[in-house]
C-alpha cells in the first residue's frame, strides 16, 4: 500500500486558533505527530471576540470530519444566531426572533453559534495531552536541513519537518513564504466587551435577547453579540484612514478619553449604546482592517504552508473562521492522501484551491465593507436577511 507523504514527519502548527487546532485534530486522527505552538501563555487566557456561526459547507463540515459533531451539539448556543436590526435609538427595524420556523442541524442554512472560547476548549480537549504548547510566540523561522528551526520569544527553540502557519492576520510564517502584504481595507474596528452585562448594560442586554444586534447608521456599523459567559461583545466599524487612531492622539485604553470620543462620535444616538461604550472593560481593541490582494499567488514549497487568516485575511463578513476550518480540512486531506508523491505536490494542490477561495472571499469582503457602511445599509441588510430584492 502507498504511504502518505508526511509519515514519520514532525509537523508544527504555529497558532492555536480555530484553523490550527482543527488541523491538529484532523492530522492526529490519522496518526500524524503534530505539535501546536501557541502565543497565548496558557489555556485559561480569556479569548476575546464575538460568537461565531459555523456553516454547513465549511466550519461544520470540518467539525464533522474531525468527529466532533456530538461535542459541538452539546456546546453550541441555541438562539444565539438570531439577530435584530435596530436604528440609532435602539428601535427594532427587523427581528429574526419573530420569524417562524426554527432551523436545526441537518438544514443547509442552519448556522449554529458557538463562543470563540468554547470552540477553542472543544478543539483543545479533542487533542492528545500536551499537543498544544502554550507561551510559544514564534519570532523566527530558519531552514535547517530539510526542515525548520522555530525560535520563540521566550528563547526556546524547536525543530519541525513541516511548518503550517495558522498564526492569524499578522502571520510570521506567511512572511517566510511570500513578500505579498495585505492592503488597508479602509475601515478600522473598535472592539470592546462588557462583563456581567445584565447588570452593567441592562437595556442592551434585554434588547439582545441572547442573540445579536446590527446597526448601520451614518456610515458606521455597530455589531453586538451576547456571549454565554454573561458578557456582551461589540464592535464598531468606521471608514477611516489607516493611521487614524494613532493620529487622533486619543488613548482608547483610557476610559475617560474613550467615553468622550464616543459621546462626540455618537452624538444623537440613544442611551442604550452608551451603556456599552461607557461600561466596556479591558482590553479595548483598535483594529485597522486589512485584505489580501485578490490575485495573490506564490509557488508552493515542500515544507511550509499557511491557512486561515495567515493566508487570506479580509475584513470580517462572518466567513473567516469557517474558511480557516475548511482550509484545515482540505490541507489535512492533501497531506494524508496516498495519491501524492511528495509534500510539495500535496501542498500545491491544497494551496491552489485555498488561494482561489480566499481570493473570492476577499472580493466579497471588500464589496461587503462598501455596502455595510453605505447610507441605506440597514435596508440592504434587512433585504439580505429576508431574502427579498427590495424591488
Ligand atoms: C471584529 C472581528 C469580528 C469577526 N467576526 C467573525 C465572525 O462572526 N465569524 C467568523 O467566521 N469570523 C469572524 N472574524 C474573523 C475570524 O476571527 C478569523 O477569520 C478567524 O479567527 C481566523 O482563524 P485562524 O485560525 O486563521 O486565526 P486566528 O483566529 O487569528 O488564530 C491565530 C492564533 O495564532 C496565535 N498566534 C499569532 N501569532 C503567533 C505567533 N507569532 N506565534 C504563535 N502563535 C501565534 C494567536 O494567538 C491565535 O491563537 C472576525 C474578525 C474580527 C476582527
TrEMBL record:
GO molecular function, one term: FAD binding
GO terms for biological process, alphabetical: response to antibiotic
Family matches, as InterPro entries: FAD-bd, FAD/NAD-bd_sf, TetX_monooxygenase
Enzyme Commission designation: 1.14.13.-
GO cellular component: cytoplasm
UniProt-annotated binding residues for NADPH: 46
Principal EC category: oxidoreductase
Domain FAD-binding span(s) in chain numbering: 10-89, 305-358
Catalysis performed (reactions): a tetracycline + NADPH + O2 + H(+) = an 11a-hydroxytetracycline + NADP(+) + H2O
Subcellular location field: Cytoplasm
UniProt function note: An FAD-requiring monooxygenase active on some tetracycline antibiotic derivatives, which leads to their inactivation. Hydroxylates carbon 11a of tetracycline and some analogs.
Family: Belongs to the aromatic-ring hydroxylase family. TetX subfamily.
Protein name (Swiss-Prot/TrEMBL): Flavin-dependent monooxygenase
Organism the protein comes from: Spirosoma endophyticum
Organism taxonomic ancestry: Bacteria, Pseudomonadati, Bacteroidota, Cytophagia, Cytophagales
Amino acid at each position: 500500500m502507498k504511504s502518505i507523504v508526511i509519515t514519520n514527519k514532525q509537523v508544527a502548527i504555529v497558532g492555536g486558533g480555530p484553523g490550527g487546532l482543527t488541523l491538529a485534530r484532523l492530522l492526529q486522527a490519522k496518526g500524524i505527530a503534530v505539535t501546536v505552538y501557541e502565543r497565548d501563555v496558557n489555556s485559561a487566557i480569556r479569548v476575546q471576540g464575538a460568537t461565531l456561526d459555523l456553516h454547513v459547507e465549511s466550519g461544520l463540515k470540518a467539525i464533522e470530519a474531525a468527529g466532533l459533531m456530538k461535542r459541538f451539539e452539546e456546546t453550541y448556543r441555541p438562539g444565539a444566531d438570531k439577530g435584530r436590526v435596530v436604528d440609532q435609538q435602539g428601535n427594532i427595524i427587523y427581528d429574526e426572533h419573530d420569524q417562524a420556523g426554527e432551523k436545526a442541524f441537518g438544514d443547509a442554512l442552519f448556522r449554529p453559534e458557538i463562543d470563540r472560547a468554547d470552540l477553542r476548549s472543544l478543539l483543545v480537549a479533542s487533542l492528545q495531552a500536551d499537543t498544544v504548547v502554550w507561551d510559544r510566540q514564534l519570532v523566527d523561522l530558519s531552514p535547517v536541513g530539510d526542515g525548520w528551526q522555530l525560535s520563540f520569544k521566550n528563547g526556546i527553540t524547536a525543530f519541525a519537518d513541516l511548518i503550517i502557519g495558522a498564526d492569524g492576520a499578522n502571520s510570521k510564517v506567511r512572511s517566510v513564504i511570500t513578500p505579498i502584504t495585505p492592503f488597508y481595507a479602509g475601515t478600522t474596528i473598535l472592539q470592546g466587551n462588557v462583563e456581567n452585562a445584565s447588570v452593567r448594560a441592562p437595556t442592551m442586554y434585554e434588547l439582545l435577547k441572547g442573540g445579536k444586534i446590527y446597526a448601520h447608521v451614518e456610515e458606521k456599523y455597530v455589531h453586538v453579540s451576547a456571549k454565554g459567559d454573561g458578557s456582551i461583545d461589540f464592535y464598531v466599524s468606521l471608514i477611516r484612514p489607516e493611521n487614524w487612531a494613532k493620529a487622533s492622539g486619543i488613548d482608547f485604553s483610557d476610559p475617560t478619553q474613550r467615553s468622550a470620543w464616543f459621546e462626540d462620535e455618537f452624538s444623537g444616538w440613544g442611551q442604550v449604546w452608551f451603556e456599552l461604550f461607557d461600561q466596556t472593560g479591558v482590553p479595548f481593541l483598535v483594529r485597522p482592517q486589512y485584505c489580501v490582494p485578490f490575485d495573490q499567488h506564490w509557488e508552493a514549497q515542500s515544507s511550509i504552508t499557511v491557512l486561515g487568516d495567515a493566508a487570506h485575511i479580509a475584513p470580517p463578513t462572518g466567513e473567516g473562521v469557517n474558511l480557516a476550518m475548511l482550509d484545515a480540512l482540505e490541507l489535512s486531506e492533501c497531506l494524508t492522501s496516498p495519491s501524492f508523491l511528495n509534500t510539495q505536490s500535496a501542498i500545491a494542490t491544497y494551496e491552489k484551491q485555498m488561494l482561489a477561495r480566499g481570493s473570492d472571499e476577499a472580493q466579497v469582503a471588500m464589496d461587503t465593507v462598501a455596502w455595510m457602511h453605505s447610507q441605506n445599509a440597514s435596508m440592504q441588510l434587512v433585504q439580505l436577511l429576508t431574502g427579498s430584492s427590495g424591488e
